[in-house]
Design brief:
Its EC number is 3.2.1.52. This is Beta-hexosaminidase. It comes from Lasioderma serricorne (cigarette beetle). Keywords: Glycoprotein, Glycosidase, Hydrolase, Signal. By secondary structure, this protein is an alpha/beta fold. Helix content is about 30%, strand content about 20%. It contains 20 helices and 20 strands. Helix 3 packs parallel to helix 4 and helix 5 packs parallel to helix 7. The protein binds 2-acetamido-2-deoxy-beta-D-glucopyranose (5 copies).
């Protein structure tokens, strides 16, 4: 790499240069000391002039790749003109993943087409043949055990075609390889053509198996198209879990086949719903992109709208809300009602049919003792049926009663006792968690801060964790308060640098193996389909690299590639937030303050 940085790049082009006065290119880029420097094109340098993306490809340790690869990265110094109209895939035929691979390849071709500015020609250049060797092409379900690794090699065949060879154990690895391949193809706006790296050898696999986005679609409705855009962004960033917080107390947009009245009453409108077809379509859309959809049905709190006629929800929109819950409208299941569990079983059954989950999220967020304690029928049941009092301990028992019965109903619908995810709460505090949530069944998702002692205590007790600590990974922080003035509760805004620096390995120390990964979380009280892209992107991509590679370097080393990836997301139609003036992208290394010591120290706990 040092040699490459020191030398002027020698890049071979096979092209015909046509100049016309009005589009005569003015600028070229030169890789000097690891950064691309903007320079005037002269008569002498015209033929060898590098476009900015061509320079980026070979300059810097990982070129234009996001996330950075983890094992081997070699890309030579040569580019070839690529013919977009002649690209083919050879993938194992008549296997369970064959159709997925064909769709993934179609998406790959679309991504390449998207690189070409409208009105520009896509003709001429070399053919590309992608040869995929997949060890187990019948695997189409992503689990924590799925091998997502891949090897990608590119070389030139004697007949002039470009040979991209992919070796992987699964479709999921092969799909990631296509993503990497797409990042090795650029549009050269000096020569107006697509170009592909001629020689490459890349070996890559993720560090963490759970690399996710949590999206709340109940506080505000998020249209399916907007969800799909985020799944596209996840695919481009090699993320793999879409955690769908599909219901909450504000609305119930999920159409339960067996309990449609919940949606009829609980959706914001009859069009702001997710039908069975919508859900199935989204699951397949995500699968093609290497993403699994993980459903959450949050309970016993975070319920309300939709349940009006059942009598199963206590404190429904109780006022003043702050006496009974953390945000309006309040609502919490009444665990003493036997009929509740029949309804839950139906909803679980519908969700299991659709999502075919290998893990299920049961929520368990923000349960309020005061809601239950203020409901006369509940406290009298506790006293007469259970001889319980009204202390905090008694309400933990009531919650446990609910959780045990709900879990039993879920397991009637799943073919095996799949792991359950629950949020950190009073139930996951060290003194309670082993009694109520056995580490063999439960995975704990941490929303509390990276410094929360609970994290280490849970790890010591053998729990597997998913980190969504709000001090780094809540994407909704840093806006105005909506139930009071000032800023919202988890302000300030978490910049991409903060997201990038949130290292599970540093947080978990010697227990790193028990961390499955992380999720960036977008709660949608203050976002809807109109603004969701910019709230998520490009910050979620910062998390993608942290989880894929767990780099030992900080965000500064990734800054140039982050800007490139943000442009890539924009090119895919995702309205990602701008991070810096475009000037910084075109003048690498000139924006960071010299000797800047601002790089956030990553959190270290153990
Ligand atoms: C560059 O080449 C053009 C056309 O060949 C010529 O007109 C022009 O004077 C040259 N410019 C310089 C600075 O030599
Ligand atoms: C393509 O490249 C792979 C990996 O280098 C190689 O094994 C394969 O033989 C090549 N294909 C052809 C047709 O040469
Ligand atoms: C429940 O309410 C009773 C009566 O007001 C009170 O004595 C008790 O402390 C409350 N329990 C909790 C956990 O707050
Ligand atoms: C743990 O459970 C006990 C009752 O067993 C309860 O008093 C306590 O509040 C719980 N811990 C937390 C932090 O909620
Ligand atoms: C899970 O918890 C049990 C006790 O509740 C403990 O004996 C066991 O070691 C824990 N598992 C792990 C992997 O730590």
């Amino acid at each position: 790499m040092e040699i490459r940085r020191a030398c002027l790049l020698l890049i071979a082009f096979v092209f015909s240069y046509s100049s016309s006065a009005d589009s005569e290119p003015v600028w070229r880029w030169e890789c000097i000391s690891g950064t691309c420097q903007k320079t005037r094109i002269t008569n002498e340098t015209r033929d060898s002039a590098l476009s900015l993306p061509a320079c980026q490809l070979f300059c810097g340790e990982y070129g234009r790749l996001w996330p950075q690869p983890t094992k081997e990265y070699y890309t030579g110094n040569y580019l070839l003109h690529l013919n977009l109209n002649s690209i083919d895939l050879n993938y194992p035929q008549d296997k369970k993943s064959t159709a997925l691979a064909n769709l993934a390849f179609r998406r790959f071709a679309q991504q390449l087409r998207g690189l070409v500015p409208s009105g520009k020609s896509t003709r001429g250049g070399r053919s590309l043949v992608v040869n995929a060797q997949v060890e187990d092409p019948d695997i189409i379900r992503l689990t924590y055990a799925t091998d997502e690794s891949y090897i990608l090699k590119i070389n030139e065949l004697s007949d002039g075609r470009v040979n991209a060879s992919i070796t992987s154990n699964t479709f999921f690895g092969a799909r990631h390889a296509l993503e990497t391949l797409s990042q090795l193809i650029i549009y050269d706006d000096i020569r107006n053509e697509l170009q592909i790296v001629r020689d490459a050898s890349i070996s890559d696999s993720p560090v963490y198996p759970h690399r996710g986005l949590l999206l709340d679609t109940a506080r505000n409705f998020i249209p399916i198209d907007a969800i799909k855009r985020s799944i596209d962004g996840m695919a481009a960033s090699k993320m793999n879990i879409f955690h769908w917080h599909i219901t909450d107390s504000h609305s119930f947009p999920f159409v339960s086949k067996s309990r449609p009245e919940l949606t009829r009453l609980g959706a914001y409108s009859s069009s702001q719903v997710y039908t069975e077809d919508d859900v199935r379509d989204l699951i397949e859309y995500a699968r093609v992109r290497g993403v699994k959809v993980l459903p959450e049905f949050d309970a016993p709190a975070h319920v309300g709208e939709g349940w009006q006629d059942t009598g199963y929800v206590a404190c429904l929109n109780a006022q003043p809300w702050m006496d009974y819950c953390v945000e309006p409208p309040c609502g919490q299941f009444d665990p003493t009602k036997d009929g509740l569990y029949d309804v839950l079983e139906d909803i679980y059954g519908d969700m299991v049919d659709l999502f075919e989950p290998d893990v299920f999220h049961m929520g368990g967020d923000e349960v309020s003792n005061s809601c239950w304690n203020s409901t006369e029928s509940i406290v009298s049941w506790m006293s007469t049926e259970k001889s319980w009092g009204r202390t905090a301990t008694d309400f933990v028992k009531l919650w446990d009663y609910f959780q045990s019965k709900a879990l039993e109903r879920l397991y009637r619908k799943t073919s095996s006792n799949i792991p359950i995810i629950m949020w950190t709460s009073g139930l996951t505090e060290s003194e309670n968690v082993t009694a109520y949530l056995p580490n063999t069944t439960y995975i704990i998702q941490v929303w509390t801060t990276a410094f929360d002692l609970q994290i280490i205590e849970l790890l010591q007790r053998g729990y597997r964790l998913i980190l969504s600590n709000y001090d780094a990974l809540y994407l909704d922080c840093g806006f105005g308060g909506w139930v009071q003035g000032g800023n919202n509760w988890c302000s300030p805004y978490k910049g991409w640098d903060v997201v990038y620096s949130n290292s599970p390995a540093l947080i978990a120390g010697t227990y790193k193996e028990q961390v499955l990964g992380s999720e960036g979380a977008l709660w949608t009280e203050q976002v809807d389909g109109a603004s969701v892209d910019g709230r998520i992107w490009p910050r979620l991509a910062a998390l993608a690299e942290r989880l894929w590679a767990e780099p030992s370097t900080g965000w500064k080393a990734a800054e140039e590639r982050m800007l490139i990836h943000r442009e890539r997301l924009i090119g895919m139609g995702i309205a990602a937030e701008a991070l810096q003036p475009q000037w910084c992208l075109q003048n690498e290394g000139d924006c960071p303050a010299p000797g800047r010591a601002l790089e956030s120290a990553a959190v270290k706990r153990v």
